[in-house]
Amino acid sequence: MRSSTPVAFATAIETPVPLPAADITVTLDRSQGNHPISPFIYGLNVAPADVLHDLRPGLNRWGGNPSTRYNWKLGNAWNAGSDWFYRNGDYGYTGASASDDFVRESLAAGSGVLLTVPTLGWVAKNNDPGTCSFPTGDGQCGDAAKANCESPGPIADPQLANVRSDSDSVAAWIKHLVAAQHNNLRFVAMDNEPDLWGYTHYDVHPTCTSYDEIRDTYIRYASAVRDVAPQSELLGPVSCCWYFYWNSAAGAADRANHDDQDFLPWFLGQLRQHDAQHGRRTLDVLDVHFYPEGLYNDNADPDTAARRLRSTRSLWDRSYADESWIAQPIYLIPRLKQLIDQHYPGTKLGISEWNWGADTTMNGALALAEVLGILGREDVYLANYWRYPAPGTAGYYAFKLFTNYDDQGGHFGDTAIQAISSQPGLVGAYAAQQHASRQLTVLLINKDPQRDLSVALDLGDLAQARAAVLYRYSAADPQAIIKAPLAYAPATSIVLPAYSLSLLVFEAPSS
Description:
By secondary structure, the protein is an alpha/beta fold. 25% of the residues lie in helices and 21% in strands.
C-alpha cells in the first residue's frame, strides 16, 4: 500500500541565475573520501508496511524496550516494563505472530531485517493488560514507587507476569524464522540496552548489570544463534548511551574489579579473546545507541534549534566539545572505529537507535538529513532512526530525499565523494555517485533560518555536460518534495532558500 502523502512535483521553480559572487563555495573532489555507502545506514525501527514501501529504507529493526520481553511462542505478548507499570499487553496487534509478520513485510518491501532477541531470561506470560508485576490492592498495577537497581524498593515475583526464556528458546525462534524466510535474516541483536535492565526491567532484574553479566549473557545467546543461523550477522552489546559506553550500572566497584577499564574496549577485547579460542566470530557489529543529550525532544526555539544543528558535529568532529553535561569532544564514529581497530579488528560499526528530535519541524528535518549525510560520509555500516518519521512531516521528506526522492526508487548515491563547504556551519554538503549509472547526487543544506544563500558549486572533474534535476524540500511547500530542471554551469550560483534541503541529481554524462 502506498503512502497517503506521495511526493508532489511542481511544473517549475525559479531557475538559478548567474550571480556576481556566491555566499558559499562547495567543492567536490572525486579522488577523496571514496568508499561504498552501506544501504543499511538508511534504517528505521519497527516501521509499518506503508512507510516501508514509500520510504524504502535499507533496514527495518525489530527492537526497543518491548523486544526484551516479547514471547515469540505466543506471538502477541509483551511486557512494558517500567515504561508502563510493568504490564503485559499486545500493543494492538491482533494477528498470530507479530515477529513473523514483521520479517515477512520488511522483506517484501525490500528492507533488510534486524531482529532483536530477548536475552534477559524472562518474557511475558500472556497479553492481558491486567497482568502485571506489581498489582495493587484495588486491582490496578503499580510501578514499585519508581524503584530501580540503584534505589531498590519492592521486589516482584517475576512469575506473576512472566515465564522463563533461555538461549534454547531463542535458538528455536531463530531457526523457525530462518526456515520460514529462506535464510534472509540478515542481522540479529542480543537484546536491547542490557545496561539498563535494572531500571527498565527492574521487576525481573532488580540488580544492576555488571561487565561480566553483559559479556556472559551475550556470549551464551550469540553462540546459540550462531549455531542455527551461521549466515546472520550478530550485534552487541546494544549499549544505551554515552555513560554506559564506558561504565556499567553496577558502578565504580565493578569498574575497579576490571582494572578500571572502559566498558566497550573491555567488551570488544573479551569477545575477541573468546572468539579466537572457539574459532568463530560471535560478534560481527559493535552496536550502540546515540541520542544527543538534551535534544531528543520537540523543542525548536532558536537556541535549541541552533544547538541541534551544531550538535551533529558530535558524530565526527574532534574539535567540537559537546554542549551538554558531557562537555568534551565525543567524535563518536571515529572514536568507536578506533576502539574497534585496537580491540577487535574487522568488527563493523552500527548505531541501531538514533534521533535528533523535533522531526515534525524544519529544524529537526535539517538535523535528520545532516546525520544521514554524515553516516554515509563517515562509513558507518548500519544505523536505524528511532522509530520512523511520521508520514507528511518534515522529517519524513528529509529521509525520503535519500531513499525515494522521486517516488520511483531514486536514492542518494552509493559511492561517497568528498564535498567541502566553505562554511559548513551555514551550508552542509554531501555528495555521492551511483556506481552502476554514474549518476551524481549532491545534497545541500541551508541551515540559516532567515536568509537565502547562494552557493557556487565546483564539481571538479565531474563537471562534464549532463542533464540535472533539482529536488527540494522547504517551508514553502511543506507537504511535497518539489522537482524542477536545474540549469547548471560552472559560473552559476545556486540559490538555497532559508532552512531548506536541496538535492541535485546529475545524470551520467552522454558518451
